[in-house]
Inverse folding.
């Protein structure tokens, strides 16, 4: 659906490399599950210690990830995702995530996240690989 964000979900998904090589039927499925959302600069998207019910793909904009183990916040931008750890590990959010600019996000709810990963081994592999690096205390 085309929202007042100016871009359709399809166009937003096109900006996320993780989805780039997917077959059209897979893309259609993902497109139906992702919910476009707009964040304002300074908006707190994820709060450390809270329960997480969704993860986020950044279609445009940038966010800062802050967690106690990291000297510097980690900056994530277009094509990156965050909020996957709480869903994979069934644990509270391990970091704060704050929008650094206006962001176009695609939000995926917990249940849909698990169905998508169950259906697509490549997608699971990619998400797991990045999650594994982030679980290491010194990861940037
Ligand atoms: P989650 O724990 O659900 O919420 C906070 C998110 O911050 C976490 O998922 C990851 O997506 C992200 N995150 C945590 N640590 C890092 C890191 N070292 N680098 C980038 N992102 C991270």
């Amino acid at each position: 659906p085309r929202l007042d964000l100016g871009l359709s979900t399809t166009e937003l998904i096109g900006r996320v490399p993780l989805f780039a090589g997917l077959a059209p039927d897979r893309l259609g499925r993902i497109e139906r599950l992702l919910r476009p959302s707009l964040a304002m600069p300074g908006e707190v998207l994820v709060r450390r210690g809270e329960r997480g019910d969704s993860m986020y793909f950044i279609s445009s904009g940038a966010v800062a990830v802050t967690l106690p183990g990291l000297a510097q916040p980690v900056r994530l931008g277009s094509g990156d995702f965050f909020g996957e750890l709480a869903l994979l590990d069934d644990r509270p959010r391990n970091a704060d995530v704050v929008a650094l600019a206006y962001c176009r996000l695609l939000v995926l709810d917990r249940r849909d996240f698990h169905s998508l990963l169950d259906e697509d081994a490549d997608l699971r592999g990619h998400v797991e690989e990045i999650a594994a690096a982030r679980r290491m205390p010194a990861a940037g």
Summary: DSSP finds five helices and eight strands in the chain. The chain has one domain: 9-135. The helical segments are 9-13, 24-33, 84-89, 110-119, 121-135.
